[in-house]
Specification:
The chain contains 6 helices and 19 strands. It is of the alpha+beta class and 316 residues long. A hairpin with a 5-residue loop joins β3 and β4. α4 packs across α6.
């Protein structure tokens, strides 16, 4: 098995080489072919195949920045095994800075896809057939949608013991237990028997240096643990585990002023923010309803009644 050729996207990748392939998505009405670069670094020594993927939502730029830094720092050059990097998965959304595919679909709800489906479904099918079977581990980089700003975190299922082990090795500030969503990439990979991590950090349409650093360092930890890199695993402190959480929603519409820092532990009745009108006539305070860690904040300056504002862990 060790001497079996490594063939992906119809091309054999020799040992000890760097190869850039194109995953063809579709042709535009102008006959221009849309292609996604797939960067493959294969060692001369046998080992696992790890896929680093970002931009499944086109406006989530921090993940793209993480993989860019990994390539720039040559972290993707393994001493054993193979590292595949896809910095921009949803190339359509990335070009025009939108979350969705041109057909309006969320690509992360289309797996495993279908040849007879929508454009997003057909692309998901292509990835499922051409790339997913050849990888052993996947790190999928995301950010908060819209103005929601996530603290650096890994999301995984309690039942996924391999994923949980790697999440601890990644060593993010927080590990959030969450079930897989039907037809998501993580759901499909789990059903295929692959081990995957979903990284969340920062918010869309933003390059956050701290978030990018967390993603790069955590990925290096995982690659070192799996034997693809030399060096030592960097452990700063034990991650905070979030078992249950609740969104605190706006009871009023108005201008939203944040009074706490993301990632902090807050006590019950602690002031989190203020909603006020533009005319100076009312000011409504938002207090923590219980003790917990804040791991996501909606940083939009104007909110409507019912909008999610703070994602707060329910600490036991």
């Amino acid at each position: 098995m060790l001497n079996k050729p490594f063939v992906i996207l119809g091309k054999e990748i020799p040992k000890g080489t760097r190869t850039i392939l194109d995953l063809e998505v579709a042709k535009l009405h102008t006959r221009t072919t849309v292609k996604i670069p797939v960067i493959i670094e294969r060692s001369k020594n046998p080992g696992p195949v790890v896929l680093l993927l970002a931009g499944i939502h086109g406006d989530e730029i921090n993940g793209v920045g993480i993989i860019r830094e990994i390539i720039s720092q040559k972290i993707n050059k393994p001493i054993s095994g193979t590292i595949i990097c896809i910095p921009v998965f949803n190339i359509f959304g990335y070009l025009i800075q939108t979350r969705e595919f041109p057909d309006g679909r969320d690509l992360n709800r289309m797996f495993p896809g279908s040849l007879q489906g929508s454009l997003a479904s057909q692309f998901a099918h292509q990835f499922t057939k051409e790339i997913a079977p050849h990888v052993d581990y996947v790190i999928d980089f995301h950010t908060g949608g819209g103005e929601r700003d996530n603290i650096a975190q890994i999301r995984c299922s309690k039942e996924d013991q391999k994923g949980l082990e790697l999440a601890k090795i990644f060593n993010p500030p927080m590990i959030v237990f969450s079930e897989t969503i039907s037809k998501s990439l993580r759901d499909m990979l789990l059903k295929m028997g692959k081990t995957s991590l979903l990284f969340e950090g920062g918010k869309s349409k933003e390059l956050d240096a701290a978030i990018i650093s967390e993603g790069v360092n955590g990925t290096r930890n995982v690659l070192t643990h799996l034997g693809l890199l030399e060096g030592e695993i960097t452990v700063r402190k034990t991650p905070i585990f979030v078992d249950k959480a609740k969104w605190l929603r706006a009871s009023y519409s108005g201008m939203f002023k944040i009074m706490v820092k993301n990632g902090t532990f807050v006590k019950k009745k602690e002031l989190l923010g203020v909603i006020q009108d533009p005319f100076g006539e009312f000011k409504k305070k938002i207090h923590a309803p219980f003790d917990g860690h804040i791991f996501c904040i909606n940083k939009t300056p104007i909110v409507n009644k019912g909008d999610a504002l703070f994602h707060l862990s329910i600490d036991k």
